[in-house]
Amino acid sequence: MSDPTAASGRGRFITFEGGEGAGKSTQARRLAARLETAGRRAIVTREPGGSPLAETIRGVILSGKASALGPMGEAILFGAARIDHIDKLIAPALAAGTWVVCDRFADSTRAYQGAAGKASPDLIAELEKVVVREIKPDLTILMDLPPQTGLARARKRAAGAASDRFESEDLAFHNALRDAFLDIAAREPGRVKIVDATETEDAIAEKIWTILRDAFPAELAARDA
Ligand code: Z5A
Question: What is the total count of domains within the chain?
């Protein structure tokens, strides 16, 4: 039997963005499973990480050891991890016709290190060009919710474990992050779709599937799952 995904050429690149505990990982997994059911080959990956070298860099960043570098230094580390992730996993998968669902990508650098962290937005934009090159998301799902709700979910799941580098930032930082993501969505409404992340997991999954079908009618309309 022929492989319809391979026959239609390059896979699609879908990213999930938003604050802590918004449900990105949960929905990224659900979306990839639904794409598979609909006949599309799909993988889930994450940032920072997604390749062995990028996972090593993830450990350094989230331990807090790199925070002394300041937001631009951390942005460069996220960028280095992203280059390896793109080169080793994302670009080859897309070229092979696989759909890539990525839990965070370059919008997180714009929001965390740029807007909320106060690194120069112009420098962050220049870094993004160098790092991302032609591998831009076809669609980004922004999982939006009040930071208090997301942080409470993340803490409940951590069950007393220590906060990581960014979870330990104050509420003002997390509010600035939310505004930064909403600002990205307002500037790029064609690419970034906002989803209310306070709803139930099932309701959110349905909304995301509707967004996917609207965004990729030729690829998904006849392949509902
Ligand atoms: N970072 C950066 O600064 N710059 C960059 O360029 C990049 C990243 C790429 C990565 O940490 C950190 O790196 C991140 C940004 C920074 N900041 N922090 N911390 P991470 O990967 O460990 O954490 P995260 O990306 O923030 O993910 P998260 O905290 O795991 O949240 P999530 O993926 O959005 O949520 P989840 O794991 O799917 O769900 C969280 C909990 O809520 C879990 O118990 C679920 O069962 C529950 N959940 C999920 N959906 C719902 C609904 N709908 N209702 C109720 N409960 C729910």
Answer: 1
Distance between CA atoms of 40 and 30, rounded to whole angstroms? 14
Nearest ligand 1 atom, CA 200: 53
**CA 34, CA 174: separation in Å to the nearest integer?**
31
Let me know if residue 1 belongs to a domain: no
Question: Are the CB atoms for 11 and 41 separated by under 8 Å?
Answer: yes
- DSSP-derived 3-state class of residue 66: coil
Q: Is the pLDDT of residue 177 over 50?
A: yes
CA distance 53 to 51: 6
Q: Is the CB of 20 under 6 A from ligand 1?
A: yes
Range of the domain at 127: 10-216
CA–centroid distance, 73 to ligand 1, in Å, is 22
Given a cut of 90, is residue 223 above it in pLDDT?
A: no
Q: How do residues 82-124 score in pLDDT, each as one tens digit?
A: 999 999 999 999 999 999 999 999 999 999 999 999 999 999 9
The pTM of the whole model exceeds 0.85: yes
